[in-house]
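User: Predict the complex with phosphoenolpyruvate.
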Amino acid sequence: MLALTLDHIFLQQHAENKADALALLADILVKENLTTDDYLQGLLDRENQSTTYLGQGIAIPHGTQNSQDAILNTGVRIAHFPKGVDWGNDNTVYLAVAIATKSDEHLQVLQLLTSALNKEVKDDIRQAKTADDILAILNAMPESLVLHENLIQTGVKASDLDELAYHGYQLLKAQNLVSAGFLTNLSTKKAIFLQPNVWAVLGDTAVNQPAVAIVKNSQVIDFNQQKLQTLVLIANHSSLDQQKLQQLLDVLFQSDLTTDDRRKIAGQIQAKTIPDWQKQTVVVPNQHGLHARPATQLVNMVKGLSGEIKVAVDGVNFVSAKSLTNLLALGANYGQTLTFIAEPNSESEQALPKVIRAVKQGLGETVEPIVQSNAIDATSQSEIGENLTWVDPFVMPNAKPKGIGASQGVAVGQAVVITPKTYAYQQTSNDNQAEKTKLQQAIEQVKQSLEKLIKTAQKKEIAEIFTAHLALLDDPKLLSDVNQKIENNFTAPYAWHHCIEQTAKVQESLNNPLLAERAMDLRDVGDKVLALLCGENLAELPTDSYILVKHDLMPSDVARLDSRYVAGILTAVGGASSHSAIVARALGIPAVVGAGAQVLQVDRGTQILLNGLTGEFVINPKQPQIEHAIALQQSQQQFAKLALDTAQQPAITLDKHHIEVAVNIGDLKHAKDAVTKGAEGVGLLRTEFVFMKHNTMPDVQTQILDYKKVFEAMADRPVVVRTLDVGGDKPLPYLVINHEENPFLGVRGVRLTLRRPDIFKEQLTALVQASQGKDLRIMFPMIARLEEWQKACTILDDVLANNPHDKLQVGMMIEVPSAAIMAEKFAPYVDFFSIGTNDLTQYTLAIDRGHPVLSAEADGLHPSVLRLIDNTVKYAHKHGKWVGVCGELGADTEAIPVLLGLGVDELSVSLNQIPLVKMQIRNLSYQSCQSLATQALACDTATSVRALSQDFLSHHQQQGSLYEQ
Ligand code: PEP
Ligand code: MG
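Assistant: Here is the predicted structure with phosphoenolpyruvate placed in the model:
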């Protein structure tokens, strides 16, 4: 920052004319060691290009681009000419401020000097006796026209001048330079052209202090049949007249600016740092990122505080932390760094440490604290683009209808079909005030009904959703966007709908599916207000038992439902993790989502049967189908009860073949319950949890404590421990891994631990020490090549040399096709294989296992995967080794007989599946499973394998399908 001090002011100077004055100034600059003699030519050239007279007897002589080399040090010196110097055009200069800057600092000098433009200071300057007098005039703060880097923002995403003005307003308001009425009274229609792409807009209402904000859009946009990119938004006082202002703008944006000057201004415009604001950072500890619930907590915490508080992901593009939509649009993921800044001398500034603490503690969610997160690259938010509409290329014309089972249970009832409502409204209005009042009233009414719903909510999850809705209606950014549109003569419904849609689309375009789903909440609450604005009431629901059929389920739809009357829910779109699915589950209402648009064609009153477990549904079911479905549900319930009652019995087939059923553990809490649920051991201990729950790498002793808990809970049962399987898509916040284009094909699992033998050895040491006398089975994840297996074993041998273990088996996971294909080569060395069908399927079919569109096609019953399993089992058994399956396929009812038939020795499944899997095995014949497997291996598609298995099960078990009657 350039500083002006008393000894920079040279009083009682005299010059005959402008050239003399410039020579005098150049002389001062040289004596002060700021420039060489050559700078004088620069001052003269600059004056010839255009005058540096600013107004009120002040000029700001400075050099040209060509004279930059003559600058030795940056600085400003002021010469006081009490008698005045003729500066041309009838202007007399009493104060010449000579500037020597190589960078863009002269804008700061301008800021200081613009104070003079605000007042009649010419006489005061002329009569000044001391340097103090001059400084006092220049520093006359209350009336100074503020322009500094906090008032400059680039990369703004606005679609028109109004939106750009809104951003400028936010900057001014954040500095308390203007108040609420400023924007409402701004007339963007009267924009002043400054230079190509640069326009100025003046506002003079609710101005606390004259100021200039400069906002630059990311793209050039059309305005008045011309182009616009940069807006100079001026908060004008009556004392700042147009002419003086124009002079300032001329200096800032004069058309004859040199390229370099333009660059300097552009450079200044790009400066986005906010150095004077308190700044603190915190890492997002929430597993699902800063989604609606924690974000709502944050908004509620800061919205009442005076002063602005802003937040950005990884320090770029700050948004107000008081705006829920802004927070959600940040798309902050787990492990990303949030930077908070707070306005100086405000309550927000005082509250900053508290805010940081609250974020660290998860904003109402249970989280593990994180201290450092340099392992994760900022997730780039996808550019907003057109949404692609996918068609499902594999829907068979006569396929039985099926959706996604979102909430278990069988339901039957009359359809109540609610199709999306279209609202009719005028687009423009002449009465802005009336529109604003209408909007206010509609919002108030919706808020009241939400408050009532929060109070009467049957479940905590539902109350939380409505609290988030309430916060959306209080969102200052949303409200100000809508008001701005109304100001531009749009009607309240048009403005409201436009802004809701715009915000929802931004959220949908983010990488994070959870945040994208929150767009639904926004539309939900948006529709309620829109309905009121259009004089519509929300559809009344019947009070007798029915199946609700909708395009998509809004959370509030579910919450408004009375579970006494709603037998089930069927939607055209949606996923199992949507809010509505969560709420449906919480209310215990059977639900099938994503059933396709054809369900909306059903007439009200048509009977529907659905199974929320399998996703099946039948329109107009026949009576026997209904009876069968009800019987099926009852038998499922009985089956589950019986399974639990007999959970301790071994899983021995009808023809006496024993399959070991073990538990997958990814959380210590589950270890104890596993034994009660019938686990014969741990088939997969996902040790990541030990590492994830700490915020730095846990040392050997810390790991031992956790591992011991599992070994103790399992008593003498075998425990298969998988060594650390992080990296790629599962980052450890404190472990630095460079950004990878294809994380699933990157440094994952054993590839990572082989590259960090220190971590690997510590984990192996902890495992061996924690399990003395116990049945320890260690396996390495993601082995693809024999060299990796050998290397991992060498490291283990090193550890065992100092920590012997007498009950140890060493195996590997089969998750990569190369390992399955080469099982013959691995089998002699391993003690066992454990097949990770989740990854094996993903790598075999080349489908990302979490892909939002494709993952349903990644079926582990595909014959290609089965052949790999077959190959693995064949060579393992040849060498007398055992094989387990620890992927999700191991608990899939239709897959179990096939896996048994392929000769798998152990199934490791999640806690609640254990009794069911054991019970199913006890009802199967091993021999029949073997012939089923032989047929499955010969199938062409996963669908035909499933059909085969369903057929098999319908003959061998009492677990039918809705379609069977
Ligand atoms: C698997 O890939 O099937 C597996 C069990 O490992 P994870 O799901 O932990 O990757
Ligand atoms: Mg895996």
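The pocket of magnesium ion (ligand 2) is lined by residues 815, 836, 838-839 (CB under 6 Å).
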